[in-house]
User: What shape does this take?
Amino acid sequence: MVANTNSDDLSRNNPFFLIDPYREFLRDEGVPVIEQYSVNVFEIELEPWKRLGGLGAYVHLEGRGDFCNCFVVKIPAGDQLNAEKHVFDKVVYVFQGRGSTTIELPSGKRNSFEWGPGSMFGIPLNARHQIFNGSGSEDAILACSTNAPIYMNLVHNRDFIFDNPFVFQERLGEDRYFAGEGEFRQVRPGRHQWETNFVPDIVNFDLPIWNERGAGGRNIMFTLADSPMHIHLSEFPLGTYKKAHRHDSGAHIFIVTGEGYSLLWHEGQDPVSTRKVDWKLGSLFAPPDGPTYHQHFNTASAPSRYLVTGFSGARYPVLESARRRNEARMSDKSIKLGGSQVEYEDEDPRIFELFRSELAARGAAPNMERYLGARAGAA
Assistant: This one.
């Protein structure tokens, strides 16, 4: 028993207090860990990655939450990453380059598919895989989102994560899922799902309408390799913006086409001057600890699309709080009815005025009359 000792002295650097196995793993990875509010995957510093191969960096966004992470990896022309397997889910999006991925099945059979800019794929849980750059002249840049932090902190054993013999047979999916085929699972607008392992091109993927989020937007959820991760793709037309909504931290937002900006604020804060994130192809950001309101605005001359990854999906909500939100349709229900969405008629009028001025600076005009009525036509 220790007596008459300052408690702060005991806790400081104590090996039995506040252990974080995931952070310890990061320190051993030997690549940068970028901790910012938003980044662009084409602009961040990447360094040689001994374990994985290629050059990479972890991206720890301010609003990433407790369960998921993101990393960016560059594969030099004609090179490949090291083969690996792991007991955590991984979603890969291709920002640049062309190549292939090989997934090894328990039978020894290998499923391979070729990818290019705009491709997305999920790695089946604990399946050995390897990623190759098929170009002899162009580097490939991939952004990967995983739920490694929660797995590592729960089991705190790296052999369990990276050298585990167990086969998750149900996660492998059908062979055709590796060829880019899939199945549409009808649920309801905003929650329809496409089940597969590989999507050759999400930039041109046909999306169902989601009127509830406003402005003629479109949306679909993806279930990749039967993963519990949240993955959705949204699009909204030129000259428009989506309704504001709020949720807790953890949503990683990747801009895959277009350009624009997002406003982010907490309850009681000024929506037009608290936080503004300008985005374009390659941008990555996450709403901070919340619930945080956020609203997305398209200032491009064509529709804009963004990809969102997170911890709990529509098929496997994992968390009871996520189950309740989905059952109650919180995401597309007005806050006046207990939901999470701000209807256009309830938003701060300055939000539209800022949008109008942003478009005017680009020689364009908003296309919101159908949704805002007379307010959209006022000078």
Observations:
- The chain has a mean pLDDT of 94.
- The two ends are 75 Å apart (CA to CA).
- Residues 177-377 form a domain with the Jelly Rolls fold (CATH 2.60.120.10).
- The longest strand covers residues 55-61.
